[in-house]
Design brief:
Elements (H helix, E strand, L loop, with lengths): L1 H21 L3 H17 L4 H20 L13
């Protein structure tokens, strides 16, 4: 069961990152992708930790989708 949850959370996370690239939110997509990779590396010691990290990363992706990081001198495209 935990692998199903982890798979759903990871798929959601990747789809959010792809959406950000599609709608010209490259800076947020880069931050989100880097966080996903960092979580995968830091929490890879056990399956339970990896599940916790993946779900946490998916929640951060959702937060960044709703409240994007505003980079200085960079305009975000709205659609």
């Amino acid at each position: 069961m935990e692998f199903v949850i982890m798979g759903i959370a990871l798929a959601f996370n990747i789809l959010v990152v792809l959406w950000k690239f599609t709608y010209n939110r490259v800076g947020n997509a880069m931050v989100d992708g880097a966080l996903l990779i960092a979580v995968a590396i830091l929490f890879s010691s056990s399956t339970a930790l990896l599940i916790i990290g993946t779900i946490g990363s998916a929640l951060v992706s959702l937060y960044l989708l709703m409240f994007p990081i505003k980079f200085k001198g960079h305009q975000h495209a709205r659609s």
